Amino acid sequence: MRKVGIFGGSFNPIHTGHIALAQAVQKQCGLDEVWLMVSPQNPLKRNDSDLLDDSLRFEMAQKALEGVDGVVACDYEFHLPKPSYTWNTLQHLSMDYPDHRFYLLIGGDNWAHFERWRHWKDILRHYDVIVYPRDDYSGTIDVPLLPISSTEIRQKVRAGEDISGLVPAGIIPLVKQYYR
Fold this sequence. Notes:
By secondary structure, this protein is α/β, with parallel strands linked by helices. It is 36% helix and 17% strand.
C-alpha cells in the first residue's frame, strides 16, 4: 500500500516554501509521495480576482517540481465537480487508487477551523490528517517553514522586485510573465 500525502492549495504561484514543506512532511511522516493538489476553487475562500487560470498554475507547479523526488504536481481536482470539497476529492482518490492510503496535509490555521469543512467528521474517521504549523497555529508535526507567501510574490512581481529564492529558478520567467 502506497502512502500518499495530499497537499491542496491554490499554488498561485507555487513557491519554495510549498516545496520545502512537502519534502519535509514526506520524509518525516514516511510517505511514498506528496501530491500537490492544485485546487481549481476553494469553497472557503472568497472569489480571488488574482487567481491565475488553473492550467497555468498547474503548468508552473509541474515545472517547479521537475527533479524534486517524492513530490508531484496533481490536477486531479480539475476533473471533479466544483467547488472542490476535500471529502469528495479523498473519496474519488480512494476509489481510483485502491492500493494507496491517503493522508491529508493541512496548516494549523485550517485545522483551527476544520469543523467548517464539509464532512469534516467523515474525513477524520477515514483519513489521517497531518497538521503543519502555520502563522500562529501549531501542528501535529514540527517542520521548518519558510516565511514566503504567494501574495508577497505577486506583489513583488508587480513592483518589479527580485523574486530569486522565493520560487524555483526554472519558473521565474513564467511567474514574471503571468503575474505582472
